Amino acid sequence: MEIGVCSISARDWNIDDVIAIASSVGFSFIEIWGKEPHVGDRTRADAERLAGLGDQYSLPTRGYGSYLRAGATSASEITRELEFASHLGADYIRVWAGEQEYEEYTQDHWDAVVADLRMIAEKAAQRDIDVTVERHFGTLTNRQEGARQLLADVDHPNCGLNWQTYCEQHPD
User: What are phi and psi of 66, to 5 degrees?
Assistant: First the structure.
């Protein structure tokens, strides 16, 4: 069995230390959190340095937790994040499902998120990277029914769901 860790669990630590410690306690892989202090400027050099650390510690990067928001992100940012994930050697990229919650979405926003997720999934597939959206407050996947309907509407084999549990109270 493989067990991974997302570096956000040590959000205030230097990524070098996170990788070294995660490897030393037996994790099999890591998802790199897409914020500072873990990703630098998201250049190719930053990604290759992180991939090299993973190689050094036998802790491959399986995922990249981007902050792309389908339906609200520019094409250039999508390309930049997919390139970063590719240079990391990530198997998947995490993408947020819009900026509205399922109970309050507008049809225009829903349609934009669906179109973006299809496009991101297609571009990611060309790089052999899967796309996952997660259950999260402030997104169309904040509820089970929203997540199911969104995946059905996107209908792309390269787009899936990363379901995370949380209490019904919004975290600080």
Answer: -75, 170
Contact at 8 Å (CB) between 158 and 125? yes
Cβ pair 85, 64 in contact under 8 A: yes
pLDDT tens track for 6-42:
999 999 999 999 999 999 999 999 999 999 999 999 9
**Which residue has 């070294």 as its token pair?**
20
| Whole-structure pTM value | 0.92
CB–CB of 86/50 below 8 Å?
A: no
Tokens of 111: 């349609």
Which of 71-85, 97-111, 152-166 is the least confident region?
Answer: 152-166
3-class secondary-structure state, position 64? strand
Angle between helix 107-126 and 75-88 (nearest 10): 40
Residue 102 · residue 141 · CB < 8 Å: yes
